[in-house]
Write a structure and sequence with these properties.
260 residues, alpha/beta, nine-stranded mixed sheet, Rossmann fold
């Protein structure tokens, strides 16, 4: 009986910690969103390009901590920060994303890190507009839609709903992603996008425990997944080219196969 009580209290405490972490992440975004980054940001010479695409109601500012860390580590010397407003359509934003990346004139690999709706914008650009992306990391992206978007009255939100034309067209053309190494980062405490929707079939799955939809942007495991995605297309592969499976954070801070 005592053991059960202790376990119940522990679970309750863990839940409270998770809620507080997400509240802190939302507060952090409230400070970062009004600080969007310049579209093209260069910290040094690089053949590859790292592109950041935020979610709805946000700005490139939410990626500032991650982008700064990657630049400091020499993994993302050349960056594109793509900003868009929460109106219009996925297709409209995808077309502009293609133009922005083309303007960067990068000679080497393109790696895109996208949060939430941003992942659908990137997928549309790749699957319907022919944008070449070597590696894509989606974080809390509703690949199969989110039912929470149904009550929202404007078009962009409706495209996030399960069964929408936008979601259906991406599902029907998902084979066009075969040239892109995709990583799906799943926030296990995400109440906006279910894990099943954040998981794209055939992608590398990285589950991040204890964080929600916004907190995943600032989690060490999520950042490690991004580092691995960049290295996977800018360095020689060390795992035989494997790109799918389920991964966890290893003791050395790198993402590892759960089965291994």
């Amino acid at each position: 009986m005592l053991t059960v009580m202790v376990m119940t209290r522990r679970r309750r405490w863990q839940k409270e910690v998770e809620v507080l972490r997400e509240v802190a992440a939302v507060a952090r975004q409230g400070w970062l969103i009004p600080q969007p980054s310049p579209t093209l940001k260069q910290h040094g010479d690089a053949r590859h390009l790292v592109v950041f695409v935020h979610g709805i109601f946000a700005s490139s500012g939410v990626f500032r901590p991650m982008a700064f860390a990657l630049a400091r580590e020499g993994l993302a010397p050349r960056q594109v920060n793509f900003d868009y407003t929460p109106v219009g359509t996925i297709e409209r934003h995808a077309k502009r994303l293609c133009a922005v990346i083309a303007d960067a004139r990068v000679p080497g690999p393109v790696i895109v890190v996208a949060h939430s709706l941003g992942g659908l914008i990137v997928r549309h650009a790749v699957q319907h507009l022919g944008l070449h992306v070597d590696a894509l990391v989606t974080m809390g992206t509703p690949h199969h839609g989110t039912s929470l978007a149904r009550p929202w009255p404007w078009r962009l939100a409706q495209e996030l709903s399960p069964g929408s034309v936008a979601i259906a067209s991406l599902a029907a053309t998902s084979h066009r992603l075969k040239r892109t190494a995709v990583t799906s980062v799943i926030a296990e405490q995400d109440v906006l996008v279910e894990a099943s929707s954040a998981s794209l079939s055939g992608s590398r799955l990285v589950r991040v425990p204890g964080v929600g939809h916004h907190g995943v942007l600032y989690d060490p495991l999520a950042w490690s997944a991004v580092r691995d995605a960049i290295r996977s297309v800018t360095e020689a592969p060390s795992d035989g080219g494997r790109s799918s499976g389920e991964f966890v954070l290893g003791p050395d801070g790198t993402v590892r196969d759960r089965a291994g």
